[in-house]
Each structure stands twice: as C-alpha cells, then as structure tokens.
Amino acid sequence: MKKNNLTLNDFKNAIVWSYTRVSTKDQFVNNGSIETQVNKIKSFAKENQLIITQEFDAEYESSKRINTQSTLKELMNKIKNTCVSKRPKMILIWSPSRFGRAGAEHIQLFVKLRKEFNVYLYSISTDNHTFNERAENEFSTQLLYAQKENFNRQDTVIPGLINALENGKVFGKSPRGYDHFGPRVSDPTKVQAFQEIKINNEGKLLKEAFKMKIYKSFTDAEILKWLDSKGMKIKKQRISEIWRNQFYTGRISNSLLEGKYIKGSWEPLLSIKEYNQLQRILAGSKQFGIVKISGKEETPLVPKFAMCSDCNDTMTAYLNKSRNIYYYKCNSCGKTVNAASSKNSKRVGLHDQFKEVIDEFKFSHELKDLFVAQLKKIIDTEMSDLSEKKRLASIELNEFKKSYDTMEYRYAINEISKDIFERQSKKINEAIIEKTKELDFLPTKKSNNENAIKYFLKIAQNPSKFYDSLEYTQKRKFQYLMFPEGFHYSIQNRKYLTSKTNALFELTKCISESYSFEKTKTHPQKWDGSSLVAGTGLEPVTFGL
Q1: Which residues are 58's β-sheet partners?
Q2: Model confidence band, residue 535 (pLDDT cutoffs 50, 70, 90)
C-alpha cells in the first residue's frame, strides 16, 4: 500500500485496530464514554469494510504527556512485536484530541507509525487522517490546537485553583479519618452548600495512634494490631503514608502551591511540632533501625535484658502451667528464679528484687537543689559544645546550598550540560538533606533540658513507684535507660551484681552517698572519678518514655 494519495477505499477488508480514550470521570459521564466511542468506531468499520482485530481502551488517562498514556504505549509495543502480515494497516480513533494533547510529541509518534511500520491514523468523527503529507499537516494542526486548548485552560483554570487552595479549599477526597462535606461530593448524605471537613470515628483512633507513635514508641505492627482490635483495618504501606501526610496537621499541600503549606479550616490530629518530631523519629528509624520491643507483660525483664552473671548469658522466661507461675531461666546453666513474689514462694521474686535495686538510686527531696546545681553544670558544658557543633554544621549546610545555587546558575547559562547538572546536583541535595537532619537532631533550647530535669526528679524521688506506673513498652525502655548493658543477676546467689548504670542515676546515687558520709567527714570518689563536680561527656537530658 505505497500509493501517494491513499483514500479510505484503499483499505477495504484491511486489518485495523482501534484506540479510544477518556481522561477524566466527567468526560466518561458527559462526553461519550469509552463504550460510546467503541460503538461508533465499530459502526464506521462495518460501513467501510474494515476488520478490527485489536481494541485498546484507555479510561482516565491524561494525554498531556505521552508517558502518562500507558495504553498508547501498549499499542505501540504491540505493533512493534507483531509480524507484518498481522500488523494493522490503520488505527481508528474518535478524534485527534483523543489520540493526544502533547503537540509535537504526538506528531512525532504518528510520523513514526507511518515511516517505521506503514501504519496510518484515521479520525472517524472529523475525517482527519495521515494518508499523505497534506493530510498529516492538517492532522498536526488539530493536535497543536488540542494542546493550545490545554494551555488556555491552564491560563484560566490554574489561577482560580491556586486562589481556592490559598483560601483553604481542599480538592479531591480527604484522607482517612475525615468526612468530606460539600457541594460536589459523591455521597448524597454529605452534600451541602459549603465545604466542611470533620473528624470521624476513625480520625479519633488515628489521633491516638499518632500519640502512641510519637510519645510511647509503639512500632507500626503494634499500632496496626491495636487499630485492628478497634475495628479499623489499615495495610502496612498505608500507615507509613499516614505518618507522612501533612493533611493531619491541618495544612494543605499541593503541587500548584510550589512547596508552600496553607492552613486549612479543619481540626488537625497532631500539631506541626509533633509532626516534625514524628518525621525525626521516622528518619532515625530508617537510618539506624528500631529495636523491636518484644516479650510478655508478665515477664518484662526479658528478652535480652536480664543477664545471668554466673554464666554471662541472657535469661528467658516460661510459665509453669501446673503451678501457674512464671520463672526466669538462664539459657546456659538452666537455673531458674521465680518472677513474682507470692505467699507460697519461698524467696522474693526477681521483679521485686529489681525494684529494690532501682530504689537504691532514690534520693530525698532535701537533696534536690544540690542535684539540680550539679546537673546544670554538666548541661551547660555540654550545651556550649553543642552550640559549636551547630555553628559548624550550619556553615557546612550553607556551603552546600551555595554550591547548588552556583551549579544551577551554570546550568541556566549553558556552562554545564543537563546530565552533569542532574548527576552532581543530586549528590549535593543528598548532602543538604543529611546535614539538615544532623542539625534537627541537635538540641537547641536549654528550657527543654530544664523540663527534662524536672521530669527526671519525679522519677528519682521514687523509681520503683514510677516503674510500676508504666505500661509494658515503657517499662522496657526504662530498664535500658537505667542499665544500658542489661541487669546482671546471680541466680545461684540470688543477688544483683553491679551493672553499668546510666550516668544520671549514678549522679543521684553518689550525691546521696556523699550526704550520708557527711558525718564521718570523708569524701568518696564520684561517678566520674572526681571528688567534687561531675565531668563532661553526658548526653543532653532527654526522655522518650
């Protein structure tokens, strides 16, 4: 079929394929659905003795760019991989605009169809085709006009959309946890004259889930299990999206806003400060990994915390079903100790012994001022070091940003190629992100440390009582807060052996000992090796219980 002036009659009894497309639901409902286009094309083929062997139907596919038209890509691949004898002579479409609205991109595509595969296009609603150069020129004009229509819509519609967004209007569905009321919602029970977004029952559960993640260090699996027990099922991938969705802070994020966030009119589930804290938690878990807090509430000292000092091995726990008593057991020597004390048990349980040990770090209220003064000296030293760290990190961050701006300028004036710019700017952006994270993790407010001191004083005045008030996950964190390397216990001698202790608790202990030795006028050595003031090296005071 190499004629220069082809007509439709030249394709009688030829194999043809069809391609139909609608880009939005509104077009599907109001502008003739895929089914309507298919029926019209089939009638046209029958009238003109054309044999349709393949149909390609693209629902809700935008054609602003070819890369968004997956069905059109499928069609092109099918032509490429089909032998010449079974390859179509023509592709029937409804109109040029249904083929695409990307202008030059779609023009190149139909030229490729003709030159490489000897396949032509035909629009049944407009009679536009690509049978010859003159026809191709007109077809190209139609495609360019369709692209111009898109530009005109953008010029008139997008400013209105931006204005609506800046006034707090939400487009599309609200995320899980909210009910969306307004004039254009699909649920007839939620139709009303003005837009309104309200927290529903799922939102109340998500609000609690955010607190569990931020303040109680629950894992995603634990939170999903808790939500499931409340009748709310969420997939693992979806909970990750929820943690990162700015909508829950009461803010609107949209590509049209170019990175800006606009305050919405709905009630948030968490504050912006809490959101930022959550992102730091997520960034830290991705970078360093979260230690999974496993075990049973009845035996919170395992796994991997209670250590048999006789064998230097970890303990496990088990339930004696006949006696209904929990025991801790050494993995090496097999010796056991009862977990809880009871009237029938001959010896005090390990739980009570653990609480007796942590109460050794208790100090009286009259020592409060001495402790605070000592701790503030340590924090002042640490904060001065942190200020220098922050200053140096800020300088490095600014240097990275200057490098990026310089490279962007050189790319703009064509000093460097696009490939070099994308490759090198990616590295600089990664460095900027890492340096920004580093700055975010450096404490900046002394007041935060003072609040933490008050919180620590509450713990130190009665450690065992505070420990009893915690739920299981918090108990496990508190254990490692006090004894970072585990709790060493001799099952054979039924006795706690000295374990490495958190510096803060050591400080309370040495102050209490100093106070008790005052009558003898001796000066015991402090936890840091000095006789008066604790040294540097203590991390800023933070608690995540």
Answers
A1: 21
A2: very low
